[in-house]
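Ops channel
N.P.: pipeline sanity check, posting one input/output pair.
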């Protein structure tokens, strides 16, 4: 089933390339919209997503892992005593 989706994905990319390459000449502006949307998403992820508590535990940063887990618990509305 996976190989069928690979073919569908490849053909979709081929048709999109043919359409924007030969039929529609506004490809630059459409790609700029996609670029800026992706750029904003990447900046958001870098700014707001913290390290994984599991990774922090494996690297020995127990205090930071505890802070992140407590932040997640508080975000989910669970009352805990520190």
């Amino acid at each position: 089933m996976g190989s069928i989706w690979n073919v569908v994905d490849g053909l979709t990319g081929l048709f999109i390339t043919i359409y924007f390459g030969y039929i529609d000449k506004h490809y630059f502006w459409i790609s700029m919209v996609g670029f800026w949307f992706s750029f904003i998403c990447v900046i958001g992820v870098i700014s707001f997503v913290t390290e994984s508590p599991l990774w922090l535990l494996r690297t020995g940063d127990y205090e930071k892992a505890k802070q992140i887990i407590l932040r997640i618990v508080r975000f989910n509305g669970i009352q805990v005593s520190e």
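N.P.: looks fine end to end. The chain has a mean pLDDT of 84.
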